[in-house]
Amino acid sequence: MWSDKWWWNSRIGDQIKHVNNFMNSSLIGTHELGSSTLRYDNDQFQATIDVQDFKPEDIDIRVDDNVITVEGKHEEAREKQDEYRRERNAAYKHFLKRYYLPYEYDNNRVESRLSSDGFLTVTAPKKGVWVPWKISTDRRIPISYGSRTYTSRPWLKKLSWK
């Protein structure tokens, strides 16, 4: 019976340690999250996302108050036909990432850039002086790629066979 209490207490102690470590750690630093990396520092918020399988026009970046949403959709359809058979193939890829932007970062100055190796970087500078967020509506952020700028295309069109 004493060993059961000891086990219970040690698990609670471990949980309390994890909660304390989480509460004591600041947001400043770099955090790996699967195919993306988040960095909060004294100058800016930065999210880097691997989007190698997507074209710039397949990616949509939106800011709604303090939430940055990055979404990518790619649809491809092919039809191949010879005298004996007819084949139709379709491929669909999709990702959705949402990032909470703390109040000390400027949600009205969010920018994005796509590198030649397929990494999308979304940044928001830190505010110089604390200013409350402006009430903003959902807005789209263009993607800079080389010397061009892309905005997302409407995704409500039907898949067409080529």
From TrEMBL:
Alphabetical keyword list: Stress response
Signal sequence bounds: none
Cellular component aspect of the GO annotation: cytoplasm; nucleus
Domain SHSP: residue ranges: 24-144
Gene3D superfamilies: 2.60.40.790
Superkingdom, natural source: Eukaryota
GO biological process: protein refolding; response to heat
GO MF assignments: unfolded protein binding
Record's protein name: SHSP domain-containing protein
